[in-house]
Amino acid sequence: KPSWPSTAMLLLLSYLAVVFFVSGLAINFIQLLTLIFIWPFSRATYRRLNGFLVTYFWTEVIWLAEYWSNIRLRVFSEPEVEARIGKEKAIVLCNHLSDMDWLFGWMIAHNYDILGGAKCLLKQLLMYVPVLGWSWWFLEYIFLHRTWEKDKGHLSSSFRRLGSFPMPFWVVIFAEGTRYTEEKHKKSVEWCEAKGLPVFKNVLYPRTKGWKLVAEELRDSVDCVYDCTFAFPPNQIPGLGDLLNGAKQDVFVHVRRFPIATVPKDDAGADQFCVDSFQRMDNLLEHFKTHGKFPDQEHQQKRRLLPLVVMVFWSLVVTALFGYLMLPALLAGEFTALWILIGVMVFGELFLRMAVWFSKKHKPKSAKKPLKAE
């Protein structure tokens, strides 16, 4: 596959990047108004409204996956689990294979009508990503310095605020702490063997400290824990560049549900619950290697119309805005407007390249003791 889109495709994508940026600024501005005028009087109303707002922004990215790149989501679970997904508050434990796992999580959340309630623990740096990072901040995503001494108090207060959240939500945790690679897996195996801990074939040994704090603080606020296992066909782990190129891809997801009451309250028991969760993921991935799919029932995921409607709406709005501002000048022979339009397209390409670079370079990195559980 080409490493970068063709010229014609790049021009279109550059313009769509401008549409994404302008629409994001519009949503961010409305979010700012809700923070100033609604948050002080009704946090429940603020949260519901912002959950609604980001759905009409984030679905532009889902459009890129589902309509531009034709990503197909394949979800496997027991029928009783399928009936509950999206209808309750939950902690979601995931393995981490791709730099696009966050997007695939959004696709799942959108399909189960909980996109506006999706939460994740992210690096502090991501809060400053234009429009997207700002929308995360307004929606109360939790940003970390990745230093336990700095993060512990912030995590506790953030989770306590979620206790009053008025609608179903997910708090997503990638407990491995970094994306799976062969090199990192080798280090994980060496560390586990040295410590006498279980060795996994397809996942890294999880870091349990953050998980334990999440489980402790949210125990009275959530209904359950979901094990969410991602898998991809051999040598087909997608990145943002693949999506921009329109590369078709199947994303396999297996979901298991555990009532929050089954999570032990003591440290050792909570540790073991997390480790057992990753043992189950490891076993599921072994099954996937052999059979090309997960066990349990596959639930049909239909491509929804909303991402297409949102993308068309914002494209028309931004095109009309540029036409209103620039067309009279162009008809009058003032070429300054033409240069502005060229500048806008250059900005769109730079925005795309920055996003791809950020996706590749700013993945979670291992610490000096990258796989330590405590």
Largest pleated sheet: 8 strands, mixed
Overall mean pLDDT: 89
Secondary-structure element pattern, one letter each: HHEHEHEHEHEHHEHEHEHH
Uncertain segments are: 362-374
Rg: 22 Å
Helix content: 40-55%
- Number of continuous helical runs: 12
Number of strands: 8
Explain how this protein is built.
The chain is an alpha/beta fold. It is built from twelve helices and eight strands. The protein has helices at 7-37, 43-68, 79-82, 101-111, 132-138, 148-162, 182-195, 209-218, 240-244, 267-291, 306-331, 336-361, and strands at 71-77, 90-94, 118-123, 142-144, 170-173, 224-231, 249-259, 297-299. An eight-stranded mixed beta sheet has the order 4-3-5-2-6-7-1-8, sandwiched between helices. The radius of gyration is 22 Å and the shape is globular. It starts with 6 loop residues before the first helix and ends in a 13-residue tail after the last helix. Mean pLDDT is 89; it is low at 362-374.
Break the fold down into its secondary structure elements and pairings:
Layout: H1 7-37, H2 43-68, E1 71-77, H3 79-82, E2 90-94, H4 101-111, E3 118-123, H5 132-138, E4 142-144, H6 148-162, E5 170-173, H7 182-195, H8 209-218, E6 224-231, H9 240-244, E7 249-259, H10 267-291, E8 297-299, H11 306-331, H12 336-361
Parallel strand pairs: 1-7, 2-5, 2-6, 3-4, 3-5
Antiparallel strand pairs: 1-8, 6-7
Helix pairs in contact: 1-2, 1-5, 1-11, 1-12, 2-4, 2-11, 6-8, 8-10, 11-12
Features:
single chain; about 375 residues; alpha/beta; 12 helices; 8 strands; globular; disordered C terminus
What would a concise description of this structure say?
This protein is an alpha/beta fold and 374 residues long. Helix content is 53%, strand content 13%. The protein has an eight-stranded mixed beta sheet, sandwiched between helices.
